[in-house]
Amino acid sequence: MKAFHTIASAGIAALCAAALSTPAQAQSKTIYIGMNGGAMEKAYTSEVLPEFEKTNDVKVVVVPGTSSDILAKLLANKAKPQIHVVFLDDGVMARAVSMGVCQKLDDSPELKQLYPFARMKDDMGAGVQLGMTGIAYNTKLFTANHWAPPTSWLDFADPKYKDKVVFQSASSSTFGLHGFLMINRLEGGSEKNVEPGFTKWQSTVGKNVIEYIPNSAKISEMVQTGQAGLFPLTPTAVGDLQAKGIPVAYVNPKEGPVLLLVDECVVANNPDPVLAQKLAAFMISASAQSKAAVAGRQIPTNRQAKMPDSMQQQLGNLDELVKKVNVVDWDVINANRPQWDARWNRQIER
């Protein structure tokens, strides 16, 4: 009898525990967001997303990948997507919207707090992180050669930097493409006319380039070996390198940096559109963007967000800076990118 009583008591306890846990488990939801891995994912998962999870009793799972990888996932599952919200580089986001994988953002107070350029046409997406491609340089190398910091995009063509310029490939890197388009503009071209850039590249910037690299992953090594002296990069990426002890600094060229947004959109036909809209609004809120700035040096697009003093010192007055950024036409770029890429690979990196 005693054994039976013990077993019965254990069974009742287990049933009670199950009964108590079932409602909580039933209420818990999971929502998925696609974004770059690495530093961005770490910043959001550690400091930003927990606030949303707590407020909404939901688990937010990051699906990491490059913008191109995430877009490929969306297209492969367009009829029944599993991802609710995505972060994409602005050029890729323009393609995503044109391919019908995004739905319009709900009107919200947070949208009205953004810099005007951070709201995509018809509110099909919104900038969640402000970036800009400017000039980064090797401070150790510049000090050793008694060179003043660079000030212009045209400095990439200065003869004193021969074999010290590293340029990301314009056919595979947004940084490289931005650099090329600014040189093209300064030579009299535009997104609708890239002939000046291609025609004059080899006699200007090209003669100083020691190596074209597919992305920025090799920059750290090349700075430390003294090979890389000057290269296009963002202040956030430079901050990441500085945090690792790499001797680099960032400057905004006098002609202005190039706007580089990370945009978000709510995925069309996602499994929980109401919750997805709430997450999208949260991500562009002053609270979320202030936390992202502290955790990962993410530059806010919300004008009411706050940045740490170190970022303020590096960037200066953000309201003034954004007035000087150069905006590129991604619709024109995406329409012509295959031809440009082929020409770049054939003519510049041959």
Automatic annotation (TrEMBL):
GO biological process: thiamine transport
Pfam families linked: SBP_bac_8
SUPFAM superfamilies: Periplasmic binding protein-like II (SSF53850)
Cleaved signal peptide residues: 1-26
Cellular-component GO terms for this entry: outer membrane-bounded periplasmic space
Domain of life according to the entry: Bacteria
Keyword Signal carried by entry: yes
GO molecular-function terms, A-Z: thiamine binding; thiamine pyrophosphate binding
Keyword Signal carried by entry: yes
Keywords: Signal
Annotated protein name in UniProt: Spermidine/putrescine ABC transporter substrate-binding protein
Organism: Caballeronia mineralivorans PML1(12)
